[in-house]
């Protein structure tokens, strides 16, 4: 039997690293960390977890369920202030969809269409 002890990272494909960095570092406010590789990308530290952006030329995410973003593959992040997050996303021109379940959660997409869930804790 495999015993999983903790999540380590998620790797997310992006087509344009500069656009992705403006979203993840600028809009979401994540802090980059050093990475030991030379291929194009950037890593962000979130607590004990990392988000690895990896450049894949021509990449574009296509949600299977465009009506309800939470029913697609997505990255979920805990936030403290849902209204402030929504205002920042709208100001940055990012798409926003509230949770259909009524939870204190909203969804957005990065410049490549990858879905990000932001949940108030």
Q: What is the number of domains?
A: 2
Q: Overall mean pLDDT score?
A: 96
Distance between the first and last residues' Cα: 33 Å
Output the CATH class name of the largest domain: Alpha Beta
Helix-strand blueprint:
Layout: E1 9-14, H1 17-27, E2 31-33, E3 41-46, E4 49-55, E5 74-79, H2 82-91, E6 96-98, E7 105-109, E8 115-120
Parallel strand pairs: 1-4, 5-8
Antiparallel strand pairs: 2-3, 3-4, 6-7, 7-8
Describe the structure.
This protein has 121 residues and is α/β, with parallel strands linked by helices. It has 2 domains: 9-55, Signal recognition particle alu RNA binding heterodimer, srp9/1 (2-Layer Sandwich); 69-120, 2,3-Dihydroxybiphenyl 1,2-Dioxygenase, domain 1 (Roll), CATH 3.10.180.10. It contains 2 helices and 8 strands. It has a 4-stranded mixed sheet with strand order 1-4-3-2, covered by helices on one side. It has a 4-stranded mixed sheet with strand order 5-8-7-6, covered by helices on one side. The N and C termini lie far apart (33 Å).
